[in-house]
Design goal:
The chain is an alpha+beta fold. Helices cover about 45% and strands about 15% of the residues. It has three domains: about 190 residues, Transcription factor LuxR-like, autoinducer-binding domain (Beta-Lactamase, 2-Layer Sandwich), CATH 3.30.450.80; about 110 residues, Beta-Lactamase (2-Layer Sandwich), CATH 3.30.450; about 60 residues, Arc Repressor Mutant, subunit A, CATH 1.10.10. Strands 2-1-5-4-3 form a five-stranded antiparallel β-sheet, with helices on one face. The chain has a five-stranded antiparallel β-sheet with strand order 7-6-10-9-8. Helix 4 runs antiparallel to helix 5. The longest helix is centred in the middle third of the chain and has 40 residues.
C-alpha cells in the first residue's frame, strides 16, 4: 500500500494538517509588541502555528517566560462563571514553583468569587488586570481572606491576570503569580500583557475552529461506522480524508478479488482502485476547464460513474466544492457498491430492527452472519471463506457478544 493512502487514513482521525481552516470574518487589530528575544520570537511563531492544544500551551509558556517574569503561571480553561467552577481545568506551567494541585483548586473555588467577582462585574470585558487594582490600599491586600487562605500558602504576594471573555463570563484566563521579593507587576509589564492579548485570542479562535472540525469529523466517522454505507472522501490530491469500514472492505475486494481479500485486513491493504483514481482525474480536469461564470450555486456538481475492470463493483464519484469564497479545493465523494453482476452472496430479508443489528457488525462479520442464517455449519463456512474452523468460531463468538445473543438459533431469530 502506498504511503500516501496510509497517512491519509491516519490524518482522518483528527491529526494535525488536514482540517480545513475557516476564514475569520473579522481580524482583530494586533498592537505591536516590544522587540522580543530570540526565544520570545520563536514562542510567538509557535503560538501562531500551533494546531494542537499541547503545542499551544507549550508556546504560551515560552511566551510568558520571555515577556513577563513570574514565579508561577496557571491557565484556567472551560469556565464561564464561579457557579460552574467544577468544570474548570487548570494547567500549571512546567517552570512553576508551585504547580496548581487539587487543594489549590479548592481554595480558589472557595475564596475566589468574593474576591474577584465584584471587580469583574464592574469591569466586564477587561483583558488584563492585577490584584493591586482590587483593593483601595494595595499594601493591605494581605489582610483579605483570599490572600491569607490561598496566596500566602504558596508564598505569593502579587498576581496579574489575562482574561478571555465569552458573553458575560470568562472562558479562559492566565494567572501570573510573584513572590514578595519579585515585586509587583509594573505598568510596562501590564502594557505587555495587553499587547499580547490579541495574539493569544487569535490562536485560541483558530484552535477552536480546528477542534470543532475534528469533532465534526469524529461524529461523521461514528455515523458512517454505524451505518453500513461504502463511502470515501478524498481531497483534491486524492489523499483519503475518510473511509468507512464498508468502503475499505469493497476496495480490498475490488483490488485483490474476493478470494485474496479474505486473507487481509481491509485497512492494511487499502488503496484507491485504479478506475476510481482515473475517474477522479477526469473530474478534476473537467472542473479546472470550466469557465468561472459557469459555476453557480444551482449548478450541480460534476460526477462520474465507474466500473471495475473485473465485473462486480462500481462507484459513483462526485466533486463537492465548498460554498462561497474559500481557499479549500473541492472534495471527491466516492460511493461504492457491489453491482448487479457481482456473484450472489447469501442474503437476509431484514426488517428495520435486524438492519440496526447488522449495522453493529463489520463487513466481514455481516458476511459470516449471513452464512449462519443461510444454514451453513462452521465447517462449511470455514471452507467457503477459506478460514480455519477455529477462526470462524472466534469470529462468531464476537458476533454473539456484539448482538447480545448466546446461540446460533438466537442469532438467526434476531436477524430474521
Amino acid at each position: 500500500m502506498g504511503s500516501r493512502h496510509t497517512s491519509g487514513l491516519r490524518l482522518a482521525r483528527g491529526a494535525r494538517g488536514v482540517l480545513p481552516c475557516r476564514v475569520l470574518s473579522r481580524s482583530p487589530v494586533i498592537p505591536a509588541l516590544a522587540p522580543l528575544s530570540a526565544p520570545g520570537q520563536s514562542a510567538l511563531l509557535n503560538l501562531h502555528r500551533a494546531l494542537e492544544f499541547d503545542e499551544l500551551w507549550g508556546a504560551l509558556q515560552g511566551l510568558f517566560e520571555d515577556l513577563v517574569p513570574h514565579d508561577t503561571l496557571v491557565m484556567s480553561v472551560n469556565y464561564l462563571d464561579w457557579k460552574r467552577e467544577a468544570s474548570t481545568k487548570r494547567f500549571s506551567s512546567l517552570k512553576s514553583h508551585h504547580p496548581h494541585d487539587d487543594h489549590a483548586n479548592q481554595l480558589v473555588a472557595a475564596e475566589g468569587s468574593a474576591f474577584f467577582q465584584p471587580f469583574l462585574d464592574a469591569h466586564h470585558g477587561i483583558p488584563a488586570y492585577q490584584h493591586s487594582q482590587l483593593v483601595s490600599d494595595p499594601r493591605k491586600i494581605d489582610r483579605t481572606a483570599y490572600y491569607r487562605r490561598y496566596m500566602a500558602r504558596y508564598d505569593w504576594r502579587y498576581s496579574a491576570h489575562l482574561l478571555f471573555w465569552h458573553g458575560r463570563g470568562i472562558e479562559t484566563s492566565f494567572a501570573l503569580r510573584r513572590r514578595a521579593e519579585q515585586g509587583d507587576f509594573t505598568p510596562r509589564e501590564m502594557e505587555t500583557l495587553h499587547a499580547v492579548h490579541p495574539h493569544i485570542k487569535v490562536a485560541f479562535d483558530r484552535m477552536k475552529t480546528f477542534e470543532q472540525e475534528r469533532q465534526r469529523r469524529r461524529l461523521l466517522e461514528g455515523f458512517y461506522r454505524a451505518k453500513p454505507e461504502a463511502v470515501l472522501f478524498l481531497d483534491w490530491n486524492l489523499a483519503p480524508i475518510y473511509a468507512s469500514q464498508d468502503a475499505l472492505a469493497l476496495c480490498a475486494v475490488w483490488n485483490l478479488g474476493h478470494d485474496r481479500a479474505r486473507y487481509y485486513t481491509p485497512q492494511a491493504v487499502f488503496a484507491i482502485p485504479e478506475e476510481i483514481s482515473r475517474g477522479c482525474d477526469e473530474l478534476r480536469r473537467e472542473w479546472q476547464a470550466r469557465p468561472p461564470e459557469a459555476v453557480t450555486v444551482s449548478t450541480p456538481p460534476p460526477s462520474r460513474h465507474v466500473l471495475a475492470l473485473q465485473p462486480g463493483h462500481e462507484a459513483l464519484i462526485s466533486l463537492r466544492p465548498e460554498k462561497g469564497g474559500t481557499l479549500t479545493k473541492p472534495v471527491f465523494v466516492v460511493r461504492l457498491r457491489v453491482s448487479d453482476t457481482a456473484p450472489e452472496q447469501p442474503a437476509l430479508t431484514a426488517d428495520l430492527g435486524s438492519q440496526r443489528l447488522m449495522h453493529r457488525l463489520t463487513p466481514m462479520e455481516r458476511e459470516l452472519a449471513q452464512l449462519v442464517c443461510a444454514g451453513l455449519t462452521n465447517k462449511e463456512i470455514a471452507a467457503q471463506l477459506k478460514k480455519t474452523e477455529g477462526s470462524v468460531k472466534v469470529q462468531l463468538s464476537g458476533i454473539f457478544q456484539k448482538l447480545r445473543v448466546n446461540s446460533r438459533a438466537k442469532l438467526i431469530v434476531a436477524l430474521r
